[in-house]
Design goal:
Structural class: alpha/beta
Number of strands: 12
Shape: globular
CATH architecture of the largest domain: 3-Layer(aba) Sandwich
Radius of gyration: 23 Å
CATH topology of the largest domain: D-Maltodextrin-Binding Protein, domain 2
Largest sheet: 5 strands, mixed
CATH superfamily of the largest domain: Periplasmic binding protein-like II
Distance between the termini: 55 Å
CATH class of the largest domain: Alpha Beta
Number of helices: 11
Number of domains: 3
Strand content: 15-25%
Length: 301
């Protein structure tokens, strides 16, 4: 009997996503190829591993038993690679890091570039998504480290605080309240449309909490996907939005967006770094984590 690690990984993805087609999308494979690989794994094991009769693929008793060992085998494989890379030092290797939209767009690229200047032999993958997407990528082993706004909830993750990030209420420069003298009362925002980030975004959670603080939970809202899209929508006059101070710093400085000073304010949200408890970090990830821990403020540029 021969166990193929690639087929084991495909098998686990099918179980995680509950269908051949969803696993195929995640693996960048065709659905027939995924199905064929699982069938070949079943043939090599001499057992049916998945129940195909329902709307969602589920493991058989044999499949459940194999899945438990497969997870351990793939984790051992990652540890073996990390051990070899540890011996090699940072002359080679790969840094796999992810970030929520604000962090991944405005913090990680600059830090990754500085890391690459110091260790040019290390390749990198940079994954950016909303909170739910980044946490899923971390749990599924697609990335080794994640830097997120707010704290992930999965108990499998180790989480450390790094920095903070405040939200500013932004409007187009021609807005009726732009340039108002002194702080604004939330009641002055009556009748405004608030642009909210997409569901799954930690920024959206902060936006909704601030509207509740201001007594504006009944205000008109519109969902906008992505920080850059939100900035462009605000600039076009489609509404006002609470956006990361770091995401809009350049826009505010150049005058393409105006900040409305509304009181009271919520405290800044924490920026956290996290990784899986059961996974050994590669040498590149360990050094990058040390660089993150050394940050005392949000780097400029």
């Amino acid at each position: 009997m021969h166990l193929n690690l690639h087929r084991l990984e495909i098998f686990l993805r099918v179980l995680e996503h509950g269908s051949f087609s969803a696993a195929a999308q995640k693996l960048y494979m065709s659905q027939p190829s995924v199905s064929t690989q699982v069938k070949k794994l079943e043939a090599s094991m001499g057992a049916t591993l998945v129940d195909r009769s329902g709307a969602r693929i589920r493991p058989t008793a044999e499949g459940e038993a194999l899945a438990q060992y497969a997870r351990r085998l793939l984790l051992l494989t990652e540890e073996a690679v990390a051990a070899v890379e540890q011996i090699q030092g940072l002359r080679a290797g790969r840094l796999r890091v992810g970030g929520t939209t604000t962090v991944g767009t405005y913090l990680l690229p600059g830090l990754t570039a500085r890391f690459r200047e110091e260790f040019p032999g290390v390749e990198f993958d940079l994954f950016v998504g909303n909170s739910g997407q980044v946490e899923a990528a971390l749990l599924e082993g697609e990335i080794g480290l994640a830097v997120v706004a707010g704290g992930p909830s999965a108990p499998q993750l180790l989480v450390e605080p790094l920095l903070s990030d405040g939200l500013l209420l932004c409007a187009d420069p021609g807005h009726r309240l732009a340039g108002a003298a002194g702080p604004l009362d939330p009641g002055e925002l009556s009748g405004e449309r608030f642009l909210l980030r997409e569901p799954g975004s930690s920024t959206r959670d902060e936006q909704l909490a601030t509207l509740e603080l201001w007594g504006l939970t009944g205000a008109a809202t519109a969902d906008v996907w992505g920080a850059e899209t939100a900035k462009q929508a605000v600039g076009a006059g489609l509404g006002i939005a609470l956006l990361s101070e770091h995401a809009v710093a350049r826009d505010v400085a150049t005058g393409s967006l105006a900040v409305l000073d509304v009181r009271p304010r919520r405290p800044g949200r924490p920026i956290m770094v996290c990784h899986r408890r059961d996974r050994v970090l590669s040498p590149a990830e360990s050094v990058f984590l040390a660089r993150l821990r050394a940050l005392r403020h949000w780097p400029e540029g």
